[in-house]
Amino acid sequence: MRRASIGRGMALATAFCVTAVIHTTAANAAAQDGAPGDWSFTVGAGALYIPDYEGSDEFEVLPLPIVEVSWRDRVRLTTIGGPGLYATPFVTDGLRFDLGVRYEFGRKEDDNDALKGLGDLDVGAVGVVRLGYAVGPVDLGLVVARDITGDRKGLTATLEAEYAIDLFGGRGRLGVTSYVTWADDEYMGNTFGVTAAQAARSARRYTRYDAAAGVKDAGVAVALAYKLTDSIQAIGGVGYGRLLGDAADSPLVDREGSADQFMAQVGVSYRW
Known about the structure:
Blueprint: H1 13-31, E1 39-51, E2 59-71, E3 75-78, E4 84-91, E5 95-104, E6 124-135, E7 138-147, E8 155-167, E9 172-183, H2 185-192, H3 196-201, E10 214-227, E11 232-243, H4 245-249, H5 251-255, E12 260-271
Antiparallel strand pairs: 1-2, 1-12, 2-3, 3-4, 4-5, 5-6, 6-7, 7-8, 8-9, 9-10, 10-11, 11-12
């Protein structure tokens, strides 16, 4: 059964698209053999290589715990692709509806010298809804995410298309996902804008910058999951995203960072 890649769009939205694609690919590969009973459990560990803020040209390596508890593939408590609780109230052979609440860590001004004086950008709980439609090896999806708590108070809508195939006699699964994301005024302004007060406090002496609603980014992620045994999988992937419009023109990106966003992940998981 196809698994929804519902966990896109953290404060490092482009980067965490990769974790969702990898997790989806790994989950699809693991689910092919089926799990006994109603419950399945996954544990593991990995590492994530990402920009230290959305739009940065500096990178950091973060540990990535892999933990998931799933009931009939309908309710999932997971740390991957946006730690949170997700449910699937409706699914057919082709159509799937997912919803959930995930936690996003936001952005700290100590993350990078370019952010000093801008203050922290707290996020917290984010509500997520995804509608997906599968046609053969292709999964088309629309993901809408809305901030519930925190400072960002934004909404994003992401169109995505995933193509997945089995490899190595069914032991491996390759997934390629392309996506484009639109963000509203609050998301764009709070993430990429600079207020007059922030400009006055900023270490980089920014001028005021207003970022309006529009297409925020587009990109592609490639993930591979390989079964070392029936229960153990090696997973990995890479991704590239390009910030667009007012996001790319922000001084945090154009002057201090880069519109080109690269990321990678590796990990090993055990499922029973």
